[in-house]
Amino acid sequence: MGETRAPERIVIVEDHSLMAHTLAAALSASGRIVDVVELTPDAEVLPTIQAALPDLVLLDLDLGPWGDATDAIPALADDGVQVLVVTGIDDPVRHARCVAAGAAGVVRKASGFDHLLAAITRTLRDGSLLTRHEREEHLSLLREHERAERRRLAPFEALSRREAEILGDLMAGQTVAAIAVRSYVSVGTVRTHVRAILRKLGAHSQVQAIGMARDAGWRPPQERALQR
User: Fold this and answer.
1) Is the CA virtual torsion 165, 167, 173, 176 positive or negative?
2) Nearest-angstrom CA–CA distance, 30 and 218
3) In DSSP terms, which residues pair with 10 in a beta bridge?
């Protein structure tokens, strides 16, 4: 007699409880062991997944209050766990970031339940949902996006830390006078920084500099610090 194969274990991480439990019921009916991570306010998502020792994780990309799930992918991939991202987000760049992080593939929720079940079966069987060519297409898209992003942000790299902070304050609607008061410096000192910002960015006015920053997707250092 052949060796009995252990049931495949799947962990579902999804902030829509109804979808998570509906999918779990369908997968359990096919003989798989399925765990749903309950996303309580104090949930430690990654340790909970790792403790389950799954063969496959179905990972929603946007977990609402728990944030973007992309950062969890590398640790799971390093543990030898296949990660299939299941998302309602239709953003090829974010999909490509998931693949670059080690995901076996990305399935859009809009594709339908039957398509998702087929994708799960294929990923468990083949170890990936993507062909080598499809994976390279994702990575190529991401590389081109990152090159374009570097080109857009290059002018802002010339700003000193203080200049970047002042540009961020201007973007937040603060006046030069308000920035001076908050920073305990003279209005003239702030204006000197503003002139340096305009010169380095090739802008003719504060309004133009602010528009350039927003168009480029640039974030001031104080905003980046808050998101860490």
Assistant:
1) positive
2) 48
3) 34, 56
Domain hosting 196: range is 159-226
φ and ψ of 10, to 5 deg: -125, 135
d(CA 76, CA 71): 10
Q: Quick: pLDDT tens for 147-202.
A: 998 898 999 999 999 999 999 999 999 999 999 999 999 999 999 999 999 999 99
Q: Which residues of 141-163 are buried (b: 16+ CB within 10 A; e: fewer)?
A: bbeeeeeeeeeeeebbeebeebb
Report the distance separating Cα 138 and Cα 140, nearest Å: 5
Give backbone dihedrals phi and psi of 205, rounded to 5 degrees, phi first. -155, 165
User: Which among 119, 147, 175 is the end of a domain?
Assistant: 147
Single-letter amino acid, residue 178:
A
User: 147, 172, 206 — which closes off a domain?
Assistant: 147
The dihedrals phi and psi of 7, each to the nearest 5 degrees, come to -60, 145
pLDDT at residue 3, rounded to an integer? 57
